[in-house]
């Protein structure tokens, strides 16, 4: 089977359902009975409330996809689907470590069981769009094309291609959170659990695996491009667009499908230009995640506060007990994820904002005169990026961090003003080194950063190499005349007197033969 470079097989036109209504594989056999259009909701989740251990922290276990109480059959079906294959997951090589990735992948695939792969026609449409926008992007940035190919992808293909990157991002977070959970136990409990630590670590790995699997399943159904969140989650630099999302996304953006595809292709191609020609950028983002993870801990204060409210005497006072339970019912008693290295998170979010803002400006300049709807699509995309991606919230709850760009609009304004001030070439040169990039404060007040770039340009324009060389020679001469507390002057005078004496003795300074004759 041929390969399109993103790791996806050639998506031949084998969709049994070509009427576009997404009824292929309508999910009648899926856990939870969700619809087959990929919207899913909670239908494919093993637990409808989004937290497999919510009953430990005051949640409602087994709410079911429909949310109807007493639907025992659905609850048992979901639970059975979750338990099936646990033996293989526990013995898989991917089960070792802080996250059981075999379990995570299986749960994610269960959620995606009703989705379909793109057709050959879809990939051809993406390829045509990418070729077109690459020509336009050449006029808005000096960074050359970075994508080595193009492809249309579906949710399952996205999951397969991005899982290695997710492992790199999630491992340090899950490892630290697992340690924090064990450290949160009382000392006596930790000592008694010593022989059971291995099993407890496996349980933690399964817990993270289930949470990550559900989260990746949600993201896979919502993702539009491989670089949607300002980071290349796939390992190969291929411009990839989820054509199955075009109809829904076009409605949200208020545009036609064709214009939406061109806009997504332009964003994807611009991202790859940046990531391919700024080689340190991705590694810096990953290191920021690892540094953030190093300071992770769990805050049990909410649970401790609830425990303090409990008085054993309430067992004899049903009204007081019911009142306390009513107060706690709407509260989230789960341990909160906190980090002592919040600055690393700020750096990561600033970097993601700078990436997204730069792409906004470059794509806007490239498409502005060619696609009349660009401005309205860009505004709708910005709003969608800020508020329309709940899967990132699920990721934050699962591992304590999400790939969000909270100041993308501010970063776009900085890049836009910098382009006007110094041009696209000087703007793109800011990416040459991480020390040149704006920091978080510059996004709120870009004037000072832009002034610093303008000052550097003025210094370069005023630079005269000949004048600088002459100035250096004068400085060296001045240092030579003044060194040694007059020794330079006396040495010069002595040399002059010796020359005068030789001229007096020889009567000539023309050469050695004459001096020899006079002597």
TrEMBL record:
Pfam families: Zincin_2
Record's keyword annotation contains Transcription regulation: no
InterPro entries: Zinicin_2 (IPR018766), Zinicin_2_N (IPR042271)
Keywords in alphabetical order: Hydrolase
Ranges of compositional bias, category Gly residues: 23-47
Sequence segments annotated as region (Disordered): 1-62, 464-519
Entries under Gene3D superfamilies matching the protein: Zincin-like metallopeptidase, N-terminal domain (1.20.150.30)
Record field: compositional bias (Low complexity): 1-12
Keyword Hydrolase among record annotations: yes
GO terms assigned for molecular function: hydrolase activity
PANTHER family per the UniProt record, alphabetical: HYDROLASE, PTHR39420
Name by which UniProt lists this protein: Hydrolase
Organism from which the protein derives: Corynebacterium bovis
């Amino acid at each position: 089977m041929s390969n399109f470079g993103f790791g996806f097989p050639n998506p031949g036109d084998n969709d049994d359902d070509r009427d576009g209504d997404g009824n292929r594989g309508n999910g009648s056999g899926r856990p939870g009975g969700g619809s087959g259009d990929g919207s899913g909701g909670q239908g494919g989740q093993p637990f409808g409330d989004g937290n497999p251990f919510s009953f430990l922290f005051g949640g409602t276990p087994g709410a079911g996809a429909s949310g109807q109480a007493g639907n025992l059959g659905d609850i048992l079906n979901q639970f059975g689907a979750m338990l099936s294959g646990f033996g293989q997951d526990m013995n898989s090589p991917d089960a070792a470590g802080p996250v059981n990735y075999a379990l995570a992948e299986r749960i994610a695939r269960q959620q995606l069981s009703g989705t379909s792969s793109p057709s050959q026609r879809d990939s051809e449409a993406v390829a045509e769009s990418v070729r077109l926008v690459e020509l336009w992007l050449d006029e808005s940035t000096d960074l050359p094309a970075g994508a080595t190919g193009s492809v249309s992808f579906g949710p399952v293909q996205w999951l397969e291609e991005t899982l290695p990157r997710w492992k790199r991002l999630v491992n340090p977070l899950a490892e630290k959170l697992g340690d924090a959970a064990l450290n949160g136990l009382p000392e006596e409990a930790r000592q008694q659990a010593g022989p059971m630590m291995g099993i407890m670590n496996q349980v933690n790995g399964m817990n993270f695996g289930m949470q990550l699997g559900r989260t990746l399943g949600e993201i896979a159904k919502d993702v539009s491009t491989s670089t949607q969140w300002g980071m290349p989650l796939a390992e190969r630099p291929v411009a990839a667009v989820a054509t199955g999302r075009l109809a829904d996304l076009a409605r949200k953006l208020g545009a036609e499908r064709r214009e939406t595809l061109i806009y997504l292709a332009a964003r994807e191609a611009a991202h790859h230009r940046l990531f391919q020609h700024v080689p340190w950028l991705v590694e810096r983002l990953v290191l920021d995640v690892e540094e953030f993870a190093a300071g992770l801990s769990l805050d049990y204060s909410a649970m401790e506060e609830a425990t303090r409210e409990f008085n054993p005497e309430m067992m004899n006072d049903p009204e007081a007990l019911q009142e306390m339970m009513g107060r706690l019912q709407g509260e989230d008693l789960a341990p909160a994820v906190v980090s002592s290295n919040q600055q690393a998170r700020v750096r990561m979010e600033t970097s993601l904002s700078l990436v997204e803002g730069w792409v906004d400006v470059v794509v806007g300049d490239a498409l502005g005169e060619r696609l009349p709807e660009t401005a309205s699509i860009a505004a709708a995309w910005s709003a969608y990026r800020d508020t329309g991606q709940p899967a990132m919230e699920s990721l934050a709850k699962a591992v304590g961090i999400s790939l969000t760009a909270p100041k993308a609009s501010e970063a776009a304004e900085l890049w836009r003003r910098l382009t006007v001030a110094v041009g696209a070439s000087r703007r793109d040169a800011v990416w040459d080194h991480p020390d040149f990039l704006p920091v978080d404060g510059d996004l709120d007040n870009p004037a000072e950063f832009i002034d610093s770039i303008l000052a550097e340009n003025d210094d370069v324009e005023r630079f005269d190499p000949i004048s600088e060389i002459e100035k250096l020679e004068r400085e060296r001469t001045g240092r030579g005349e003044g060194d040694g507390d007059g020794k330079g002057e006396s040495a010069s005078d002595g040399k002059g007197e010796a020359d005068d004496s030789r001229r007096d003795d020889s009567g000539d300074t023309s050469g050695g033969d004459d001096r020899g004759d006079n002597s």
